[in-house]
Amino acid sequence: MAQTSSTVSAMSPSRAATRNHRWFAMPVAVSLVIVIAVTWAFGIRETKPLFTLRSLVGPTTQSLLHGGGLTVCTEVMGTPGNPICFHSARMPIPTLVVALGISLLGNHYLRVAFFKALLLLFPLELAMYLAWRRMPDQTPRRITAIFLLLAPFAVPAFLACVVNMQVEEGYTYSLLALAVAILFFAEELDLPLTLLFAVTLDCLFLSKSSMAPAVIVLLIGYLRMQHRWKLHLLATALILTAPVGWAIYQHHAGGRYSLGTSLDGLNLHKGNNAAFLDHYPPAPGETLDGFDRDLNRGLHFGDEWSFNDYHLHAAVEYMRLHPRETLRGDLRKLEVALVSIRKIGSRQEHGAMLAWEVASLVFFRLMLWTAILGALYAATRPALPGDPSLRTASWLFLALVAACLLPYIAGFAYTRHVSVLIYPAALMCCRMLTHTGQVSR
């Protein structure tokens, strides 16, 4: 290893840079080929119109393209015979991405699937680049870094986020990774990186309401690492534009200022009701959506906010009156989020695909727990002389994991909800590789 390091050090800067770029070309090329292949494999079988995408992405896209904003009048939230017009049921980024794809490429599933997959892959490639620039010159560490950066692409739960257009995780996974990479690997949080970080957090917030705690943690991490007060103010102001703008839109469209969505109450009630322990975790291939009717039985709602408020109050009341059952439910959600090697909340696989899925979930758990335990170890030790920021990055990662899990422990957890953490976990492992050794430029 000493000989390898001395050889690299003896290279001219241009030659070393060329060699470094060739190394980095490998994870970029492999990830791009995998994403194209998986998108084609999943998209070629889909013949349904994009306006029928589930989770209200399809209907909101249709409404947006026809000048109706995000408005959808529907009974699919478990209110048969009582259609409710939702103006604020989903955050806008998924709808905007699909609508842009249709505007550019037509209402063709595979084309728009490629558009979405490649568009959201770009922030992930930026995250990979930031991590790679900080890798030490030692060949074993670079090989390990390549493995860590590519390993998530062997996990079906992660690939499902990459290709899926109808769940918010398909949009948050790469934005979260880029924000983490900026804080973990940027040598200096200068103006361009500050602007990129702020825009990334804005898009992250506008992709899924449950990302709000993660956005807060990441902003605090930035403010702790940034020492220039002017950039403090700029980043904070830019990041606040997303929640403020969303609240103003909601008041204009639905009559109420809100930072979340009008489905947050239902999602909380789904995970906190008298029948929850009987239904959770749901059977393989099933979700909790089939029990929405039971939560609405005998009720009539005049609008989306009366619907949201009823379920919010019902959930809070259940937690107040049944603390023991609530704790049992929370422990089950933690088990699904952090331990289970069975995919929860998505379609069931069989045969070789099931074996691959289970093996990959075992790997996912090992990587996540390695990152958590490594971060905990680094966070509780004195700052290393050669890398004092590792301790801060470790505390940030631990706080981020907690922030990402909190909404799902409060509501309910599926495997896909936690799959967005696999790339931050890989980045945390890469960050621990950089604490010794010569850093490449």
Structure description:
With 441 residues, this protein is mainly alpha-helical. The protein has one domain (19-433). Helices cover 68% and strands 1% of the residues. The protein contains 20 helices and two strands. The chain has helices at 2-10, 13-43, 57-65, 92-105, 109-133, 139-150, 156-163, 169-185, 191-205, 212-225, 229-254, 264-270, 276-279, 292-296, 304-321, 323-338, 351-379, 389-410, 415-419, 422-433, and strands at residues 72-74, 84-86. The protein is globular.
The number of helical runs is 20
What is the H/E order?
HHHEEHHHHHHHHHHHHHHHHH
Structural class: mainly alpha
Low-confidence stretches: 1-13, 437-441
Note the main attributes of this structure.
globular; 2 strands; 68% helix; mainly alpha; two-stranded antiparallel sheet; 441 residues
Topology:
Layout (H helix, E strand, L loop, with lengths): L1 H9 L2 H31 L13 H9 L6 E3 L9 E3 L5 H14 L3 H25 L5 H12 L5 H8 L5 H17 L5 H15 L6 H14 L3 H26 L9 H7 L5 H4 L12 H5 L7 H18 L1 H16 L12 H29 L9 H22 L4 H5 L2 H12 L8
Antiparallel strand pairs: 1-2
Helix pairs in contact: 2-5, 2-6, 3-4, 4-5, 5-8, 6-20, 7-8, 8-9, 8-20, 9-10, 9-11, 10-18, 12-15, 16-18, 17-18, 17-20, 18-20
Can I get a quick summary?
The protein is an all-alpha fold and 441 residues long. The chain contains 20 helices and two strands. The protein has one domain.
